[in-house]
Amino acid sequence: MDKKFDEIASFAERSGAEPGSHGFDHTLRVTRLCEFIGRREGADPGILIPAALLHDIARPAEKAQGVPHEIEGARMAGEFLRSTGYDPVLIPAIADAIRTHRFRSDEKPATLEAKILSDADKLDAMGAVGIARTFMRAGEHGGEMQNAIDHFHEKLLRLHDHLYTETALQIAADRHTFLTMFLRELEKGTLISVIN
User: Fold this and answer.
1) Angle CA(104)–CA(157)–CA(67) in degrees, nearest 5?
2) What distance in Å separates the CA atoms of residue 132 and residue 110, rounded to the nearest whole number?
3) What 3-state DSSP class applies to 56?
4) Which of 9-23, 49-63, 66-80 comes out lowest in average pLDDT?
5) Structural domains in the chain (count)
6) Are 9 and 53 contacting, i.e. CB atoms less than 8 angstroms apart?
7) DSSP letter for each residue of 105-163
8) Under 8 Å between Cβ of 49 and 5
């Protein structure tokens, strides 16, 4: 990551959620995916990287106050970036990418950078990392194995159909296959343990 984004990364780490399925390690993985996809797709890193670093900064507010983190995060990001003297021409596009990144959001990403952030966030919920995060999430919500299995069906298996960029689709192919194979084996094992 470019050194000019260090201040943004520090703010994101201080502001973001506690360690867990949406911890700062998730933010860093999403940022690295954005860097990779952005280079391939010709995105503006001045928009994309700050959006990736700041996309989950309002998760604590969502947990405490119930405000959607993508909406509050867009507001917080804009406020923070203006306070640092970041290029004011880029701030609306950064806020827009944050506001539209979420899988469950009614607002869909319109710009290339917003589509890449949305894709990168979904990719981090797929494959081996996505599986690990799913079980972490179930534990965080006081759930059991069945809650994780339900999350596979409700969200993870649908992610590959909601990607925007060609690069993300290429990355997602193996991750989706791995997810599907893992779930098949998991459900087989769960069924056997119930029968026995």
Assistant:
1) 20
2) 30
3) coil
4) 9-23
5) 1
6) yes
7) -SSPP-SHHHHHHHHHHHHTTSHHHHHHHHHHHHHHTT--HHHHHHHHHHTGGGGGGG-
8) yes
**Which tokens go with 121?**
């966030």
Length of the chain: 196
The b-or-e profile of 73-90 (16+ CB within 10 A means b, else e) is: bbebbbebbeeeebeeeb
Phi-psi region of 127 (alpha: psi -120 to 50; beta: other; left: phi over 0): left
pTM value surpassing 0.70: yes
108-121: pLDDT as tens digits: 999 999 999 999 99
Q: What is the pLDDT of residue 191?
A: 59
Residue bearing tokens 């959001």: 105
State the CATH number of the domain containing residue 188.
Answer: 1.10.3210.10
Range of the domain at 52: 3-195
CA–CA separation, 164 and 166 (whole Å): 7
Amino acid in the structure at residue 177: T
30 touches 22 (CB < 8 A): no
